[in-house]
Specification:
The protein has a two-stranded antiparallel ribbon with strand order 1-2. The chain has a single domain, classed as Up-down Bundle (Amino acid/polyamine transporter I). Helix 2 packs parallel to helix 12 and helix 6 runs antiparallel to helix 17. The radius of gyration is 20 Å and the shape is globular. It is an all-alpha fold and about 400 residues long.
Length: about 400
């Protein structure tokens, strides 16, 4: 039984746990409140895109036994191409992770303030929240001591329980199944919904997960004969994550559609009242706190791993340079969430930033998994290349349309 389960749960499960965080809960809730079931197709696309891209980066890690960043550095041999590649990818990862970290900490703040109290003050007319400092201090202590593995598993366990509650509530609320199917299979979007669409993509297809997966897959898989098991595990974990994301949209669409503004955990918790009643606020607060803290640990580490690989650092994880990267990401994330900006707005911005950065990282990945000198006979098939190109083109199109709807380029 244990061996059977190990085929379906492993490194990809951590990838799913990473994207089922406060950003997913918030953005999926907003999608349901604002658009009903209409944008479920965006999650379906995101799930397909995540399966395709995570399989590529996991295969890269398995076959080469190297990280994504290391592979980029090795394969870009021309000095100018290498320099541009390193600057672009490193910039994207640092910027994306900093924004994502702001969302993680803001999500934990939402949960903390729902469970306990709001800490903040006005200085020269500007409201500054102290709650992010508490969250940042907790994440810093766990990271600097290296004692976060057991705690992180506990927090991920709480996130999984929260996910199951959303899934159960989606059934209890009795959604309109015909409209659910319509929203899932018929893409439809207005100009006002474009940023929500790209946020839904950005909260599922997380660029830093592509770097994280290539590194952690090597801990379980050592032989290319295990590629079939890796693919099964990858598809299973990500499909489960997609179902959870869809259940959040369905629950909020059924209970809250067009009915209110979402500014706090209490606002989001209303959708769980059909199942949990008056306990819904406390439960969602605990779930957001756990999801925020666990993600606030993994995002800085993923950025540091990416920097270590792409810059060719030989030192271990305890090196000063490695620590400087994750400390910088954590510090910027705390600043993002301190200065009077609604946590919901910070989280949504982080998901949009990820969605916009995704095509750049995916292009580098697609280039690498077509290199025979790197993967030999395990390069992409024609089908995999077609799927990869479709994912990149759709992501570019949606990113451009989203930016155009905001800034009016055309």
């Amino acid at each position: 039984m244990k061996n059977m389960l190990s085929k379906y749960f492993g490194p990809s499960t951590l990838v799913t746990a990473a994207f089922i965080g406060p950003g997913t809960v918030t953005v999926c809730t907003l999608a349901g409140v604002r658009s009903g079931y209409m944008l479920l197709w965006a999650i379906l696309f995101s799930v397909i895109a995540t399966i395709v891209l995570q399989e590529m980066t996991a295969r890269l890690g398995l076959v080469t036994q190297k990280g994504f960043g290391e592979a980029i550095r090795k394969e870009l041999t021309h000095p100018i191409a290498r320099f541009l590649g390193i600057v672009l990818v490193l910039g994207a990862i640092v910027f994306g992770n900093a924004a994502y970290e702001g969302g993680n900490i803001s999500g934990a703040v939402l949960g903390f303030e729902e469970l306990f109290f709001n800490l903040g003050t006005h200085i020269n007319g500007i409201y500054i929240s102290a709650s992010p400092l508490i969250i940042g201090a907790i994440a810093f202590c766990l990271l600097i001591t290296g004692s976060f593995r057991l705690i992180e598993r506990f927090l991920i366990g709480l996130v999984l329980v929260m996910s199951l509650v959303f899934l159960t509530t989606a059934f209890v609320t009795g959604p309109d199944l015909a409209e659910v199917v319509r929203g899932l299979l018929i893409p439809s979007v207005s100009s006002e919904q474009m940023l929500t669409v790209i946020a839904l993509i950005g909260t599922t297809v997380v660029p830093y997960n592509l770097f994280l997966h290539a590194s952690i897959v090597q801990k379980k898989y050592k032989d290319v004969d295990q590629l079939s098991d890796l693919r099964k595990e990858n598809a299973t974990a990500i499909i489960l994550g997609g179902i959870i994301s869809m259940s959040i949209v369905i629950t909020s669409a059924t209970t809250l559609f067009g009915d209110r503004t979402i500014n706090s955990a209490a606002d989001m918790a209303i959708q769980l009242e059909p199942l949990l009643g008056s306990w819904s606020g406390y439960f969602l607060g605990l779930g957001l706190f756990a999801a925020g803290i666990s993600s606030a640990i993994t995002a800085p580490l993923a950025a540091a791993y990416a920097a270590k690989g792409i810059l060719g650092w030989e030192e271990g994880l305890g090196s000063k340079r490695f620590k400087v990267v994750w400390m910088g990401i954590l510090f910027i994330g705390v600043l993002f969430s301190m200065f009077g900006i609604s946590p919901v707005q910070v989280i949504q911005f982080a998901q949009v930033a990820n969605g916009i950065l995704l095509p750049l990282i995916a292009i580098f990945l697609l280039y690498l998994v077509n290199k025979k000198s790197l993967l030999g006979s395990y390069i992409n098939s024609v089908t995999q290349n077609v799927l990869g190109l479709i994912v990149i083109l759709v992501a570019i199109l949606i990113s451009f349309r989203s930016l155009n709807s905001v800034f009016g380029f055309l």
